[in-house]
Amino acid sequence: MSSKGLSLIELVLSLIFVSVIVLAALAFEIFSRQALRSSERRAHVLNEATFVLEHMRRSALLAIGDGTIAFDGTPSPAPLTLTQPFRICSSQTCGNTMLLIKQDTNGNGMRDPDGIDRIVGYALDADTGEVYFCGDVVANNFCRDSDDREVLSDNGLDLAFSWQAPPDNQASATRINVFLSLCFARNLVGTAQDTWETNPHVAVSTSLRATLASEN
How many structural domains does the chain have? Predict the structure, then answer.
């Protein structure tokens, strides 16, 4: 009797021990899957942010203008007359805060009249979350037509621009700081699913320089 009772106790303890191991393994598996999913989603957002910044960098390579002209950072009400390679247009003027870039389209190293050279823009639509590129900004700071508007990301949270002072701390319109914040799914923002596992947020920044523009 004693031997049978001891065997029963051992069996119960063994079942409990195995159950603990199984539950721990399941918990680890669930955590690993969540961590993997979160990492994959974060990587996706980072790739998207990198794509947007690289798109801006390529556009900035064609920026041309006179960066020595004095300015106070005031948004330009008439971007078609801007002489700087970059201009930050306020939301009051452009509808959304927009970075305007005057591009040397024909590659002659000179600022030519509009229609030969062009002005392009980057902005975030605060209502839809679309980070978009306008390939031909015309009067009133709008894309010439729908074909000139390219959505780079539809999960934008913030897009901001600021002037970057050169080493001598004198204002220069040849350098721009860019801050970009994206998430995995903008429709989840503010919901119970807006967590780091399900909807990771990523913030990145960079600086753009108009290498074709004059600074001296």
Answer: 1
Selection from 29-43, 98-112, 178-192 with the highest mean pLDDT: 178-192
CB neighbour list of residue 86: distance below 8 Å, 6 or more residues apart: 60, 63, 65, 99, 100, 101, 102, 173, 174, 175, 176, 208, 210
From its phi and psi, is residue 107 left (phi > 0), alpha (psi between -120 and 50) or beta?
left
Average pLDDT over residues 28-53: 86
Judge whether 3 lies within some domain.
Answer: no
The range of the structural domain enclosing residue 55 comes to 33-209
| 3-state SS assignment for residue 73 | coil
Task: Please give the Cα distance from 64 to 79 (Å, whole number).
Answer: 14
Q: What integer is the mean pLDDT of 74-92?
A: 62
146-174, pLDDT tens digit by residue? 778 899 999 999 999 987 655 554 445 67
